[in-house]
Amino acid sequence: MNHPPRSNAGEHTPHGPPLVLRHDLPASFVLFLISIPMSLGIAHATGAPLMAGIISAVLGGVVVGALSGAPLQISGPGTGLVVIVAGLVAQFGWAATAAITLAAGVLQIALGLTGISRLVMSLSPAVVHGMLAGIGISIAVGQLVVVLGGTAASSVPANAALLREQLTGPQLGSVVAGLVAIAVLLLWPRVPRVSVIPAPLVAVAVATGLELVLRLDVARVDLPDSHALVFPEMPEGSVGAVAAAVVTVALVASMESLLSAVATDRLHDGPRARLDRELVAQGTGNVLTGALGGFPISGGLARSSTNVAAGAKTRCAAIFQGLWIAVAVLAFSSALEMIPLAALAGVLLVVGLKLVSVDRMRTLSRHGEFVVYAATVLGVVLFGLLEGVVTGLAVALLRALYRLTHCSVRVEGDRVCVRGTLVFLGVGRLVRELRRLPLGRTVVLELHVDYLDHASYEAIDDWRQGYERLGGRVRVDEVHDTWYDQANQGRPGRRKTLPGPLPRWFAPWSHWQGTPGEVTLPAQRSSAEQPPESDPMLRGMHEFERRSAPLVRPFLQELAVRGQRPRQLFITCADSRVVPNLITTSGPGDLFCVRNLGNLVPVPSAGDSSVGAAVEYAVEVLNVSTIVVCGHSDCGAMKALVKGSASRGSHLHSWLRNAEPSLIRFHAPTAPGCAQLPVADRLAVANVAQQLDNLLGHPSVKEAIAAGTLSLKGLYFDISHARVYLVDPDRNGLEPVPSPA
After folding, report:
1. How far apart are CA 376 and CA 129, in angstroms?
2. What's a Pfam family this protein contains (predicted)?
3. Which end of the chain is more exposed for a tag (fewer CB within 10 A), N or C?
4. 306 — pLDDT class (breaks 50, 70, 90)
5. Which among 265, 276, 575, 681 is annotated as catalytic?
6. Which residues participate in the annotated binding site for Zn(2+)?
7. Are residues 414 and 360 in the same domain?
8. Quick one: 556 and 585 in the same domain?
């Protein structure tokens, strides 16, 4: 996955006046120009005093910025709190809402001191982004009412009803100011070389200038004097309602701040955020803003990303922007009071819609989480933020429960394969499939499960006993772990089987080995052109030591003590695509292997002692019960025989003379199933049959077969289809491998 390049903002550089003047001071002016219109717009959107947004911006910059655990995060009026605060203002009034904010700040400080902040990050991203999208839709619908000249209500359904009324008689001045602000906000970033001036500031300035020129009849910003500040009062209402409000403000403000801090970390290469300290800083800010009648504070990604992009290096940028806002309000309040409310509403409408990310929807859809996202959005929009989050969490938990307890049941003839976690929720489907099996057969129940609860064990055991009473046979084959066997012995497992380190022996080096040099290995003898750490075999050995060795060590230790006792001599080609242990699902100690070009067994009279010695050792010393000769498709030795491409006098030409009888056999009638194979592949089948005949020329083999202690088998491996066949030496044909009884 490609990530956007990170800014060098936030690098660990010495603090000092030069750094602050060069980087933080310019960044603070950019932030100031953005924060003024956003702070006023957020406050107006909730029905709070406009000065509450300014107080929140000042304290968020100065106080939270000074204490913050995420120095480059910018805090101020919380966008994600708009819907909540609007509801609190309608229910309790602003003075009581300020008291709730103060109490929420105390709760945030307590949470930060307990080190619980990281638990907030355990929330499903689908729920978090669904919550933000629902908030964005709620903001957009409410501000659309204001753009049309009305006054927004506290819920989306109520605002939808107001929209129908406003559309029948909109106020022309408000519509013009709002649409101009929206248009400028959307088009300004497309204008080249002017992006240094924030789009929200330009949008509000243009809408205000147009309103003054056209003398539009619109509602404007009304800033009260400092003596008119609203101080907190105890809310009137049930204790439960007040407590729920405090917890909601604290949790949503904390989630928005912590998520923003983590997201801001991804934008720079400086020190990472200290989340517990950040939560304490946010709580301190909310205690103070609540005490002064300000809007609840939270960290915001829009402001924080602007801070990083503007080149800020330290927390001084946040502190300065808070100071500039305070100075502007005290010195230029008359200029701020010229701003039309519809212009601020237009800015907030666009901000709200930006919280609904189509790219995020696509990502969640690819990961199968869109249902959780949609449930959260609908819950927030229709019922409120807390109800929406609870709805999203409930859907997420149900989906997680389904995934953790889901199992698949597949029936293949008389074999039933069960994969996943087998608990009571999946018993019904399994039993239905088992009862459909014909009676009187030998059934293999193959369990690939990481957990088997008591209900599932009883269901399987009851069915097995009933099936066997009616004349059938049942064999339970446990692949992943022995849950059924343990329960049978009265020692049922109690916890899921944790996945262990997976060996990579079944995949080629090129599949799992990435960029050479990722693994550091001791120096080896190698050419200067190829450094030792790039050797795929050495990296494979390292991977074996790290992952596979712990899994096979118990088997190898036992084999080292009692010696090898393989039951098979496996003679196959040296082709790198033929892996005997892979195609036979065997392990250490199972196969005694001989590999050569073309899987040839020279007759004793040929004078080759290598293959003959291995055959004698396997039969006379190891007492193997089976000798297997395995050929394969696309064999280079067979192609060389067909084309006669081996140079005379070469070792290859001398070796392939042992396969000349196979060429004679190849011209004999071929089984119908092999007629469609390429010439070299048909020769490979005939070659396997011929090598089985050659084995009979070895005295030790002939005697063991006569004694009934040895059998010969021919195999053919189709590389492109990863399929193994039995070779019929009498017909030079292929037969599918039969299913085990």
Report:
1. 9
2. Sulfate_transp
3. N
4. low
5. 575
6. 573, 575, 632, 635
7. no
8. no
Query: What is the pLDDT of the chain when averaged over all its residues?
Result: 83
Whether residue 637 is found in the same domain as residue 714? yes
Q: Quote the CA–CA distance of 1 and 263 in Å, as a whole number.
A: 17
pTM of the model: 0.58
> Is residue 635 flagged as an active site residue?
yes
Q: What is the CA radius of gyration of the chain?
A: 38
3-state class percentages of the chain: helix first, strand second, coil last, to nearest 5: 60, 10, 30
How many angstroms separate the CA atoms of 45 and 603, rounded?
94
Q: CA angle at residue 38 from 35 to 43, to 5 degrees?
A: 120
Instruction: Please indicate whether residue 362 is annotated as part of the active site.
Output: no
412: containing domain: 406-488
Is a pLDDT exceeding 70 seen at residue 386? Answer: no
Between CA 715 and CA 723, with CA 718 as vertex, the angle to 5 degrees is 80
DSSP 23: I
Beta bridge pairs of residue 451: 421
Annotated active-site residue 590? The verdict is no
In a domain, 428, yes or no: yes
Kindly state whether residues 216 and 249 are assigned to the same domain: yes
What would the pLDDT profile of 419-448 be if each residue is shown by its tens digit? 888 888 888 888 999 999 999 999 999 888
Annotated binding site: 573, 575, 632, 635
Secondary structure (DSSP) of 76-92: EE-GGGHHHHHHHHHHH
Specify the pLDDT at position 196: 61
Using CA atoms, how far apart are residues 736 and 741, in angstroms rounded to an integer? 15
Mean pLDDT comparison of 9-18, 202-211, 252-261, 656-665, highest-scoring range: 656-665
